[in-house]
Amino acid sequence: MFLLPHKNVFSCRNSFGKTCWDADRLDLPRVGIIPKKDRLCTEAAKGLLPVEQR
Question: Global pTM?
């Protein structure tokens, strides 16, 4: 398992896990939730947030 635990605290173990975590978070706006910058693992994902969230 790459992300432990999934509920409240997360740990990105490697680049694949980080990418999967960020992809999941970046899909949240489709249901009206904007991910928090501090909950993303990669700088690339943080750069994809709306300007007001960066």
Answer: 0.68
